[in-house]
Amino acid sequence: MCSKKLIFYLVISAVFILTTLSCSSEEPVSITITDETHHLGDNVGSEGVEYSSSFEITSTYESGILSITFLFPNDAGQSGPEIDFPPEIQINDQKVGLFPSDFPDNPDCINNFREYDCDVTISIEIADKIEMRNNTIRIISKGEAHEGDDDFVFTDLKIELK
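The structure assignment produced for this chain is given below.
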């Protein structure tokens, strides 16, 4: 009698565990940090050289993709980000990008100051940089090739988690 109860409880426990595991795969989550247009840099009309925001992660994910869109032309009259000294993106004070290699190699979009003068969306894997807590993201203007080249305009800063 005891062994039948034990087997029954083991079977019920196994079914519960398998059901929990099969139901625990989470749907992809999209976090829009900002969909507004932001002008960073030191030229007139900019918001300053840094944009900062926070977002909360309440579960673990295998994949996290950050995407950001740089606009050109734009209403601020600014060129695109400089490729050789691109804006820096940090999550929780750790640099995740940008690097010159993050920009598409399109000669039609690169001006004589090596600024990327086309609309471009860049995606970066960040799963190892985000944590189950409140996270901080920063976009920092870094251009150095010539005066005024640190200015750029971005929008659609998002994170896709899977």
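Interim note for the steering committee: The first strand starts at residue 29 and ends at 34. The chain has one helix and nine strands.
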